[in-house]
Each structure stands twice: as C-alpha cells, then as structure tokens.
Automatic annotation (TrEMBL):
PANTHER family: AMINOALKYLPHOSPHONATE N-ACETYLTRANSFERASE-RELATED-RELATED. Residues 1-89 form the N-acetyltransferase domain. It comes from Streptomyces marokkonensis. The keyword Transferase applies. Gene3D superfamilies: 3.40.630.30. The keyword Transferase applies. Pfam families: Acetyltransf_7. Keywords: Acyltransferase, Transferase. This is N-acetyltransferase domain-containing protein. It comes from the Bacteria.
Amino acid sequence: MVLEAYADHLFLDSIAVHPDVHGRGVGRRMPRFVDAHARALGLPEVRLYTNAMMWENQDLYPRYGYEVVERRVDGPHDRVHYRKRLLRGVS
C-alpha cells in the first residue's frame, strides 16, 4: 500500500495483497486501515484512481464507499478518479 497525504485528502496511490496471503481477509481490512489513517491525519477524504480498463476495480471501489469523480485521459492513461468522503467515527 502506498499512501500520500495532502492538505485536503489522503491519496491511495497503490494497494495490493501478496499472493501468499490471498483469502485471509487482508484485502478487506486494508480499506478500513486507509480510512483510519486519513482520520488520524485529520483529513476529510481519500482519493484514488484506477485504469479505466480495470473493470474489477470499478466494481470494487463503490462497495467500499468510493464515488466516481471523473474519468480523465492523461497522456496515454485513461483513468477513473474516485473519492470517499469520511465522516467522523464511521468507516
């Protein structure tokens, strides 16, 4: 997991689970960790993007409370941008 803190959000740059621990719930716990880390830093939201071809991610992120902000092409990259606004005390 790679996280970058900015003044108004936490950016989730990369998230992955090692194949040796697949099926152990690690992937389900990681988004809760990200939310908790953002709150600990006093940040109101988490942002991320995924490649538009990664349809699995586009199915997954809304299940964790992320909403699509925009789809944007940056050079050769077609990306879907997401955000999750955090409420105090809720993940």
